[in-house]
Structures are given as structure tokens and as C-alpha cells.
């Protein structure tokens, strides 16, 4: 595991997470994330061979309801909280392609 | 009746027609108006809506409806959706968001006759241990104004401690109900993962998040759990495991219960004064007929690193939904910018420092090439931790620890040191990772006015034994009746 994150790596992670961050934050985050990952890295030494590889979600099993059509949230209620919507009843977003 | 009344006392009086829900609601609204400016426990109070709900409860009682929480005023953490009432998760990103639906836990409380007073402050998206990460400013501890109430459900804990509501809903991912309950000297119950529907709970880390009550007595917490627990068509993970009679369980006592104490896990890192209160609490339980047994949780020392890898990975995925399209804040894009720039500007502007830190950490831990070393490894250690608890709880009925390693710390004390803040959760994240029910109950004070909490952890879906032991401790101790200075209980009664 890398012990030290560079400013460039932090910028790359921010890019993946779609976060526009000020330059000053990148340096601070490089320092903080390095500290946290060094701390969290202690688990590398734990012998986990006895654990199943399966990722467990918890004790409760999933329960499915009957596959019956039903009313869901009315369109106008869903649109009421949108930052931008049009008269046709759609969410609107800035230019997506080219 | 005054604000010292418990939830059960209010419920019984309103249900019997001896007191109107409207009067009770007005009493607590007046207290909030007078006292909350000093505490900032609430983000939103809609007095008119609360009065309307209370009047409706009075009509239902008059019609002869039997309501299990008749006229009980409740404060709701701002991570739970409330129809028509602003719900922000204390984030700028959701400032002004008004949900078109109620979370299942909230809907069940209302159907049971409870009256929502308002929404309580918390760390942004429940990420924090002090309520200082709220975008709208911190909440103060009713016992000591210069200290935090804990977090993330700090507003709920402070509101209950200051008698601004007899009970509140919180949400607990790594300790966010139990730790603030301990810091504010109230009861906080984290149910088993899957016991209470998460529908309408703003998601932080889905394999850990759980909704639960904060209150002043164990019986009050049991009464709320009874109403909010159980399966839900809107949440496939809400279990159909049968409920118990949690209120009746409060009268069982703890005679013959085996209480496990993980001595080795508590050897270091726990403040001496907290350890002394914990030993006194164990002595009380032993005095009530419980037997104390040493248990070992060998992987518990890895709980904080495991938690911060699992929780942040899940958070980075859950918080991807805040994209400026369907609800909440939208920023930009500048002229010529497209939708991708809008996402970046919105998220960069809307999320606070700790939320950014956790999204970044989670994104890193899930990256190709690092996934096995961090997230997958953390899940494997988590599985070992769960086995440790399984083995311990095969020998004992509950495991006891202090809830927190220290009493409430000062505002500003840890906010610039993320690891120091994360370690405030060292005793609560383990039961969370194992999915187990756990309660924090008051077990004394450091000095005159800093509460300490006792944590009791039970087997999956055995909340009944947890509340039985907690109620036995409560009956034998005076701590839950202590009143913080901020409660100013000399005020008017009704």
C-alpha cells in the first residue's frame, strides 16, 4: 500500500468523485488522507485466512414484495424539488454531449 | 404535568383523555422557543404543523382510537425524510429540500399518535462524532455549553437531555445514537441492523445505517422501538423476525443474566474516570443478580480502521446521487460548461470538509488496484469481528463496555484532527460492524456534570434482553433523573 498520497493522486480521486476542489484543499487532503490510510493500513497485517471471502451484508435476508404494479411518487411531486424542470414534466440539465 | 414527564406518562395521560395532545405540544414548543436558541438542537421547527398534528391526535383519541404513542411529542433527526418539512441532513447540498414523503419510521410514529416537533441538528450526512460538521453550526451540550453533544445525532440527544422533547429519532452508523446519548446523559438504542426500516433515511453507509430512539428512560425507548420496528415493503432489508414485547422486557430484571466484559479490549484508551463509572455500573448489574464473565474480542482493536474503510466506501457510492439534477443544490456550470462541470461545481460547493474527506477516502479505497487491500480486506476483518461477537454471545447474554472512551470533549477540540475524532467511536463501531443491537444508558458523571454512558450489546434481534438489562441498571441508579442546567426546569407546568 502506498504510504504517501501525492497532490496529483488526490486530484485524480477528486476527478473520479466529481468534486471540484480549490488547490489549497488538494494539499490538505493529501496530508490528511495519507494519515488516515496509514492508520487504516494496520489491518494489512491481520490474518484473515479464516474469514470467508464473501462480503456479508448483515444478518437479515432480503425480502421481496409481490411484483404488482402500483402508483409511485406523482411526477409533479418528484419535479417539485428539482433545481430545473420544464413544462413537459422532465428534469432539465446542462448540455450533455459536445 | 411538566417537561419532566416521560414519554410513557404522556402517552398514558393523553390516551386516557386526561390531557390533550395540543396542550402537551404547546408546552414543548414553548420550551424550544425559550431554550433552543442557546443549544441549537433543532434545525427546523414547524410549530403550526405540530399543532395541526396534535389537534388531529386529539380528534383521534376522542373518536376512541387506541394510539400507542398518543400525543407524544417527538424530535426527528434531519437525516430522516419528513413529508412537507425541510430535511437537509445538515448539508448545504440539501438546504431547502422538502421531501414529498415520510420515512417509514416517521410515518409509523405519526400513525401511532406521535407529534413531530421538528428536525434536529446533526453532523452533515451523519458523518461525524460531535455535530460540529453541521453546515448550519454546532449544537451545544446541555450539561456544558463549551462541549459538544457528541454526534452525529447530537441535536436529538441535546433536545432530549434539555427536556425539549421526551424522545427523538436518531440514526446510528458507527455510534451516532449511542455516543451522543452518552455525552448528553440520555438513553440511546441502536436496534439490530434490519430491525427498523431504512426507507426515507438519507443513506450514509447502507450495511451499517440503522434508525433508533433516544429518550430519558429505557422504557420510553422500548415504546418507540415497538412502533418503528418490523418489516416494510419499501425496504427489503427490514427483517420479518418477530418482535418481542419490549416494554414488558423492561420489567424482567437481570437476575441470572450473564454479562460479558471484554477486559482486554478495554485495557488501554479508556479514560480512568470513565472506567471507574463503568466498573460501578457492572457492580450494580451484579448486585441485581447478573453474573459477570470475561470475554475476548480479539479483532476489536481493528474496529476503527475497518469501520472507516467500509463506511467511507459505501458513502462514496451513496453520495453519488447528489448531482444537482433531481433535488437539492445546483451550481453552475459557467458559460460553455456542460453537465459534467455542473456535477463537479455542485458537489464541490455543496459538500462540507468532512463529507469531502470521506467521499475521497471511499473513492480511493474502492479504486481498481486498491480494492483488495482496503475494502475487501476490511470486509474480511469485519467477518472475523462478527465471529468474535458470535462466540462471546454464545457464552453470555449481553456484552458490556463503556459507550465512549471519554466524556464529552470540547467544541473545536478534535475538529482539525480526523483520526482523533474517529477514535471517539472506538467502542461503538464494533457492534455496528457486527450488526448487533446496542444501547447506551447513563451510568454516572465525571465531576458534577459530565455524563458517562454504559453500552450493552446483545444478540441479533434480541433487543428485549438488551433493554431488560438496561432497565435493571436504570431502576437501581438515579442517573437518568439528573437534570442538566440548560433544561431550566423551573419554568411553567401545564
Structure description:
The complex is a heterodimer of chains A (98) and B (494). Chain A has 98 residues and is mainly α. Helix content of chain A is 35%, strand content 0%. The relative contact order of chain A is 0.09. Chain B is an alpha/beta fold. Chain B has a domain of 275 residues: Amidase signature (AS) enzymes. Chain B contains 16 helices and eleven strands. In chain B, strands 1-3-2-4-6-5-10-11-9-7-8 form an eleven-stranded mixed beta sheet, sandwiched between helices. In chain B, strand 2, helix 4 and strand 3 form a beta-alpha-beta unit. The interface between A and B is large, with 54 and 76 residues.
| Through-space gap between termini of chain A | 38 Å
Percent range for β-strand residues of chain B: 5-15%
Report the sheet with the most strands of chain A, covering strand number, pairing sense and barrel closure.
none
The number of helical segments of chain A is 3
Spatial strand arrangement across the major sheet of chain B: 1-3-2-4-6-5-10-11-9-7-8
Oligomer: heterodimer
CATH architecture of the domain at 7-252 and 460-488 in chain B: Alpha-Beta Complex
How far the N terminus sits from the C terminus of chain B, by CA atoms, comes to: 5 Å
Round the mean pLDDT of chain A to the nearest integer and report it: 87
- Average of the residue pLDDT scores of chain B: 96
- Count of strand segments of chain A: 0
**What's the Cα radius of gyration of chain B?**
21 Å
Order of helices and strands of chain B: HHEHEHEHEHEEHHEHEHHHHEHHEEH
Helix content of chain B: 25-40%
Shape of chain A: flat
Approximate strand percentage of chain A: under 5%
Please tally the β strands of chain B and state the result: 11
**Low-confidence runs of chain B (pLDDT<50, min 5 residues)?**
none
Q: Can you tell me the residue ranges of chain A where pLDDT is under 50 for at least 5 consecutive residues?
A: none
* Helical content of chain A (DSSP H or I, runs of 4+): 25-40%
Largest sheet of chain B: 11 strands, mixed
